[in-house]
Amino acid sequence: MKIGIIGGTGSIGKGFALRWGQKHEIIVGSRDQKRAEDKAAEYKQILNDRGFDADIRGAVNREAALEAEVVVLAVKYSKVASIIEQIKPVLENQIVISVIVPMEKDRCTIIPDSGSIEIEATSREDYMADYFCYTTPPAGSAAQEVASMLPEGIELVSAFHNVPAAKLSNLDISLDYDIGVCGNYMHSKNIVFDLVKDIPNMRPVDVGPIETSSMVESLTPLVINIAIRNQKKDIGIKFVD
């Protein structure tokens, strides 16, 4: 299968290229042709060194989307509108996967001990804490917003939001995670289920239609906050019976 990774030069894009490049043809997409080619060569070398005859090449985003059967949107939420504008003219029969999470960092005041301590204005900064929060798009979720921008008939699937990029890129690590998958077409969802299974020990979980994507997207800032506050690193999600 030909997989075009839009944002393939980023950390999560690298992980997808290295994991799926063991079985599939990968096109690393970027706004810059040379950067795409350089990163594709880097990923290919990593897999070749591990004994895989990887088929990975770089291209500008439009070309990556044009030639792919599956297009992965691995970009920041703030960039999604401009990216879709680039690739929309060449989208016809491709399946599009959104891994986009709209979130931002915020700050709050942590009251020490009993909560009765009066904080002096000059020391208030000592009690400020950062945290990540989900910023709900007007459409309800990033996936729903993406769906509204895509050409009619393009099947969109929302998945892979809660995978730690650093661990996805580390081929020495086995990823024992569950992946929530949202979409309105079983044809495309089944293809994404298979792509999840192509990564050893990952399990796809059917969450529902694309309208349920906000539930899965919003778990990303949750797990990041848990990791930070509890001195954990790159945690994911596993559903236990």
UniProtKB/TrEMBL annotation:
Isomerase listed as a keyword: no
Domain (Pyrroline-5-carboxylate reductase catalytic N-terminal) spans 2-101
One GO cellular component assignment for this chain's record is: plasma membrane
**Transmembrane domains' residue ranges:** none
Which GO terms of the molecular function aspect are on file? Answer: cupric reductase (NADH) activity; ferric-chelate reductase (NADPH) activity
Q: Which UniProt keywords apply?
A: Oxidoreductase
The superkingdom of the source organism is Archaea
- Classification via SUPFAM superfamilies: NAD(P)-binding Rossmann-fold domains
Q: Which GO BP terms apply?
A: copper ion import
Which Gene3D superfamilies would you find in this protein's record?
NAD(P)-binding Rossmann-like Domain
Can you say what this protein is called?
NADPH-dependent F420 reductase
